[in-house]
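To whoever is on call:

I kicked off a structure prediction for a single chain this morning and the downstream step that reads the tokens threw a length-mismatch warning. I double-checked the sequence; it's 455 residues and nothing unusual in it as far as I can see. Pasting both halves so you can look.
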Amino acid sequence: MSIITINPATEEILKEYDEYTYEKIDKTIQLANQAHENWKNTSFSERSKLMFNAASILKSKRNEYAELMALEMGKPLAQGLAEADKCAWVCEYYAENAEQHLKDEHIKTEMTKSYVTFNPLGVVLAIMPWNFPFWQVFRFAAPALMAGNAGILKHSRNTMGCGIAIENIFREAGFPEGLFANLVVGSSVMDKVIEHPLIQAVTLTGSTPVGQQVAAKAGSLIKKTVMELGGSDPYIILEDADLEQSAETCVNARLINSGQSCIAAKRFIVVESVLKQFEELFVEKMRTRKMGNPFDADVTVGPQARKDLQIDLHRQVTESISKGAKLLLGGYIPEGKGYFYPPTVLTNVAKGTPAYNEELFGPVAAIIPAENETKAIEIANDTIFGLGAAVFTNELERGERIASKMLNAGCCFVNEFVKSDPRLPFGGIKQSGYGRELSHFGIKEFVNIKTVCVK
């Protein structure tokens, strides 16, 4: 069996990889566990030195990594450069803060001494997607390794080169041989990998259906999991919002990574009194965004990562139109090579259509009218997902009240698009998953939170 990567902009075959046999998978996991047994006894200062090395490599080779992302999944080059920089940031963040985050917590009891300490679990399996092929991995790997764990990566088939490059970064940075390894495998063997007795925990970023399967398998074995799954992020535009700024931010939020992001804005819920004005501004700005070769400097929308994704996105658009949505922009599959889909805007989107109920994983925006603030919040929460959400208003106390108390999501922003930050916890609720990544919450997901008492 082999894995073939394809350039989504040209449909040309990039490379063919021989899949690992189970014997090689087993040896890789065994080596990771052996490396972990020594690594868990190293000091935070030793770990930090190597993690800073990884950050330096990411910075020095950022052009190389951005080009690899552009080739394998079509990310516009400027966005790939930013992704490499963000990976360096998360490495530096945990190199600087892991020791403090995992410092023993002393608690006064009737015992002579009582405290909580944080021990690594062992080998953690990461099942990662193609859309942010470096960032998704590093936001798991940096805290997991700094906590003393080993990491095994199962990357997406179409970004296998990125997975191999990440393994090489950790090797070049001086981490112990085998402590972080990429498996060249497809999905068919993942049940056996999860079953491996040395795999202590699993983290997954991906679609909700895949998350359900992996969570069920790991759960049957009582193995800890963290799930960051799909999203259909609502952005509420209230009557007192700065519409020019809101439209600009919303367009950027919808088109980041060519629309292929779990936390991209997807549903724009607009109070009716400003609906027409917002639509005009939004469409005008969406129209200016250029679709094309991700290596071109002025391109902001590259291809969809695979042909099946392009086809399914178009199905969602056409089905939504057939059920009453109005097409304002785009909505077609371009002629020629590449899995492109243009910036597309639907309005009059109603419940029961794919644009309302499903995740649109591409550059398609769904505008939903709402009578007032109360109805807008109701629509925003009317979803199986709960990853991110945003509200736009000039009354900051009003926006903060809605974001903090009324929107059902793991990350809620006011007058800005939802984004992840190493200093803040990231994750969702409902079918967007559970657990948290990043900040001190993220590094504590894959440790044994151990109570110690001495009398």
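Update from on-call: the warning came from a stale cache, not from the record. Cleared it. Sanity check on the structure: The longest helix spans residues 77-101.
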